[in-house]
Amino acid sequence: MNLSIKGLEKAKILTAKVDLENKKLSTEIYFDKLDFTGTYLVNGRILILPIQGHGRAEISFGDIIIRFYTEYELLNNNGTDYMNLTNSKVSYTVKRAAYNLKDLFNGDEFLGEQTNKFLNENWKDLHQEFSPAIAGSIKTVVLKILTRILDVVPFNEIFLP
Asked: Which of 41, 52, 78, 114 is most solvent-facing, going by the fewest CB within 10 Å?
């Protein structure tokens, strides 16, 4: 899935816990709003609704709290230790969601509009159905960001001795 997320720069860290002895990190981060844009492919049922389509998906979450937990190991590269994240987990809660799936039913505007209306009226149930996949996407993005940082910033510059 080709996915982009907007709103990450407005993160507010609620908690951050570091256990250096057991090599564990956890954090809770709040976002007023996150906008996800990507492509979707669906042919089946969502809740009770038969649905078919392929196209652009726009999903907005409001009042979202992401909980990120990870363990890490230290890898030595030329005498310098770097963090390598292992056993990472993501969960989240959201208080608002809006879905807009483009090109449903081969571009039938009426069916697409009615389906999106149904999805948004039943967003809580829909969200429960999709939350594992969404959590996986969030985890992938978070790990990509953190890995870029941790690959170049030594451990002793992150956690001063």
From this structure: 78
pTM, two decimals, is 0.81
Residue 89 — φ and ψ, nearest 5°?
Answer: -135, 145
Written in H, E and C, the secondary structure of 75-110 is EEECCEEEEEEEEEEEEEEEEEEEEEECCEHHHCHH
Q: What is the per-residue pLDDT across 56-79, written as a single tens digit (0 to 9) for each?
A: 999 999 999 999 999 999 999 999
**How far is Cα 83 from Cα 146, in angstroms, rounded to an integer?**
10
**CATH no. for residue 121?**
3.15.10.30
Neighbours of 120 (CB within 10 A): 13
Structural domain that includes position 149: 3-158
Q: Where does the chain show beta strands of DSSP type E?
A: 3-6, 12-19, 24-46, 49-77, 80-101
User: Which run of H or E residues covers position 138?
Assistant: helix 123-150
Q: How many domains, the chain?
A: 1
